[in-house]
Amino acid sequence: MTRKIMKKLTSILFLLYIAIHAQAQYVRPGDSTSHYTQSPSQIASSGLLNHLSIGGSFGLQFGDITFVALEPLLSYHFNESFMIGIGPVYQYESADAQAYGYSYTSSIYGGRIDALFFLPDELSRVFIMGECDVLNLPEFNAFTYQLSRGNLTLPMLGIGYKEPVTDKFFFCACILWNFNNSPDNPYTNPIINVGLDVGLGR
After folding, report:
1. Segments forming the whole domain that contains residue 92
2. Which range (21-30, 130-139, 144-153) has the least confidence?
3. What is the pTM for the complete model shown?
4. CB-CB contact of 196 with 169 (8 Å)
């Protein structure tokens, strides 16, 4: 089993464990009782928290290759069809393969912003997603044969699905395509992400 598959499976199993034990009261797009069905004046008086959610994704792996990825996200829901999220990105990887004569440690950090548009009616749980990551990461210098650090912008586009677990807790999955072809790009197309989303309102 490859390292990438193990990271995805670890993330999915942990998210499912959290979802099973979650208790919630928030209603999201596609539910007829959503606070987004209120009038604009009612929405304004309902408070900022009713438009905010927190979530994101992560990955964990330990052993000869240690991998930790933390990507929390704070999202603002303008209405039942459109939301924007922003958050930091941190990835740590350490490999100890002395049997093969090498070892290394690296960290990638930066930020991301994404926008989700939910389809109407029966497809209200399906969304079109655009994301842009700006990362500081190790880059290989072909002239000096050494690693240095640099910034890389990664524009992505894809489609996803948001499944309710409770009326406040959602499980998310999406497939993205990264349009930056830099050799230092840390992502391999297609990018499959799993995560969660939890409403902060009543």
Report:
1. 3-199
2. 21-30
3. 0.71
4. yes
